[in-house]
Amino acid sequence: MVNNDQRRRQLAREKFERQQQRRAERQRRNRRRTAVIGAALAVVVAGTASACATGLFESKNGEDGKVVDAAPGAPSKKADPCKAPAPGQPAKLSFDKEPPLTVDKSAKYAMKLRTTCGDIDLQLDAQKAPRTVNSFHFLAGKGYFDHTKCHRLTTQGIHVLQCGDPTAAGSGTPGYKLPDENLKDPKVAGGTYPAGTVAMANAGPGTGGSQFFLVYKDSPLPPNYTPFGTITGGQDVLEKIAGAGESSGQGDGAPNATVVIDKATVTK
Hints:
Layout: H1 4-47, H2 49-53, E1 109-115, E2 118-124, H3 130-141, E3 148-149, E4 152-154, E5 160-163, H4 186-189, E6 192-193, E7 197-200, E8 212-215, E9 219-220, E10 227-233, H5 235-243, E11 252-253, E12 260-267
Antiparallel strand pairs: 1-2, 1-12, 2-10, 3-12, 4-5, 4-11, 5-8, 6-9, 7-8, 7-10
């Protein structure tokens, strides 16, 4: 017999998975659309260079390619509890392939996220997720995460803050994909990612990139997302961010708090 609490957890897990699938499908549609538009423009530009020069084909789009408009009746945002970001813009770097594996699997690695809302400290598990930790060590060293916005907060059923996307639209990648690692870790094998877990976001098996999520409260999720670290400091920061809510009012949207990673470092 399934009790009410188990049913709620199951529904929350199924909702999160549906959202992930929809995001992945939107990304696939956007990529196909971009390819079609690119081909069409190649034809049009040949005969209408002057039109392009005057900006005829420019458009201003928001997340997932939607035109940015003020949504009527949108929920009002709570007060922003965080300070203004440090000067600078995301580097938006892209790399042709995954960096060579250079991390010491027997060593301990720490990642510090200096955010506009406070510092968040992470312990990374190079032994169980070496390629993921190696990638984060590489990307942080290149300044990839600096000045990037944490673009997604879930507050109902699933309780995570998602970061690591220079586009802040849910579609950013470092240019390469990472394999899944550590999915049989006993901590997540039971279908729950406990509070304090650091894990990779993805659009399906073997599609990890730079986006990751911080679990601030136990969250029912299948073991499909590489767990590669633990939050060791800054739980109060995450609770402050979560307390400000998210913009959609539906439990899954952009944080009302301006969560920007001013600087990310990984040290051995």
